[in-house]
Amino acid sequence: ALVAGALLGVTLHPYADSSTLQLANRYFAEPVGQLFLRLIFMIVVPMVFCGLVLGVHQLGQHAGLGKVVSRTLLMTVLTSSASVVIGITLVALMRPGEGLTLPPEMAADQASAVAKISANASAAKPVVQALLELIPRNPLDSAVKAFDGEMIALMFFAVFFGIALARTQNAAANTVRVLEEIYDACMRIVGAVIKLAPLAVFA
């Protein structure tokens, strides 16, 4: 489907102004692709929350949580640092874009994009504030805004909820059973949606 879609797209590209092709894009290709993505996004939040809570709970039950968390944090710091170093080094050595002359209309677009990035960088929050905001004041609000940058806050809550659940003896079994059923339902939805993948990739 990937190869067929790419070949058909390249073949039809010279006729992109055709009204028939534009209608096909508007009423077939774009809706099918968006349908697939929206169905996947629909279950990301409950699946991530339940998966994290259950994983942390199981680790806590076997007294291996501290070791896993410390190793995970260490690897996150190391891999993030490595990616930053690699990126800065490659930019310094290869200097992408140097000597490139853009057409006036593209240059104007790039200038506005650079100005936007610069403005965002200037408005960046201090490190301490950014770390504090990882702790959500309202987990439900973070779940609603997960795709607007609140996913990490939701994950933070899920981890702490899982730790607390692992320390709870009485009601934990019922809560875990409900979360397992929700997670299982999410996986069944993924299994159904993934059958659309070839058509969506082609579109």
Describe this structure in words.
The chain is an all-alpha fold. The protein is 78% helix and 0% strand. It has helices at 2-12, 19-42, 44-61, 65-94, 104-122, 127-132, 139-144, 151-166, 172-193, 197-202. Helix 3 (44-61) runs parallel beside helix 8 and helix 3 (44-61) packs across helix 9 (172-193). The protein is extended. The model has no long low-confidence stretch (mean pLDDT 86).
Short description:
The protein has 203 residues and is an all-alpha fold. The chain has helices at residues 2-12, 19-42, 44-61, 65-94, 104-122, 127-132, 139-144, 151-166, 172-193, 197-202.
Q: Key features?
A:
203 residues, 78% helix, 0% strand, mainly alpha
Rg to the nearest angstrom?
A: 23 Å
* Overall pLDDT confidence: 86
Query: How many E strands?
Result: 0
Form type: extended
Portion in beta strands: under 5%
List segments where confidence is low: pLDDT < 50 over at least 5 consecutive residues: none
Query: What percent of residues adopt helix (DSSP H or I)?
Result: over 70%
Write the layout of secondary structure elements.
Layout: H1 2-12, H2 19-42, H3 44-61, H4 65-94, H5 104-122, H6 127-132, H7 139-144, H8 151-166, H9 172-193, H10 197-202
Helix pairs in contact: 3-8, 3-9
